[in-house]
Automatic annotation (TrEMBL):
InterPro entries: Formyl_transferase-like_C_sf (IPR011034), MPG (IPR003180), MPG_sf (IPR036995)
Keyword terms, alphabetized: DNA damage, DNA repair, Hydrolase
Protein name per Swiss-Prot or TrEMBL: Putative 3-methyladenine DNA glycosylase
Domain of life of the native organism: Bacteria
Family the UniProt entry places it in: Belongs to the DNA glycosylase MPG family.
HAMAP family found in the cross-reference section: 3MGH
PANTHER family on file: DNA-3-METHYLADENINE GLYCOSYLASE
EC number: 3.2.2.-
Amino acid sequence: MSPKNLMRRLPRAFYEEADCAQVAQRLLGKFLVHERGNKKYVGRIVETEAYLGPHDLAAHSSKGVTARTQVMFGAAGHAYVYLIYGIHHCMNVVTGPLGSGSAVLIRAVEPIEGIELPTHGPGRLCKAMEIDRRHNGLDVCDGPLYIADAPEVAVASIVKTTRVGVDYAGVWAQKLLRFYEKDNAFVSKK
């Protein structure tokens, strides 16, 4: 599916939905777009994880408002980009009402345009699409990094499972808050 005619940015209201897990599922099938100079990277989102706020022990916001997590407690529709293991960038989009501390991690995209490197996994997709800490706090409703509308993935084609790498989070590690498109070859872990 070509995104040429579907480059309408998602409105802020899309991200303001109070149910972060619902937003995470609705992002499947949408286009993550990064326009950088004369380059344009477009990937179709095929895998996400929901982080529900301070009560979710797997969420960065569970530590409260810090220099790192301040963006998560801000307005919906902003990028929360952080460095993991000191080498990989990961991109989230803030959701919910102001102060909720919830965000959706974009875990994998299917390359559509301008992407030449692997995109299965949050660190790989950020590298392939040249997304880094400079994008932290950027408004994805009005900037060079955004999510464009496209038809949603059918509910019957969405797999719900546990999130990756959050074993430390107790009962929250077992919550079904990771979503991916069934049978898509670009999903990071099946």
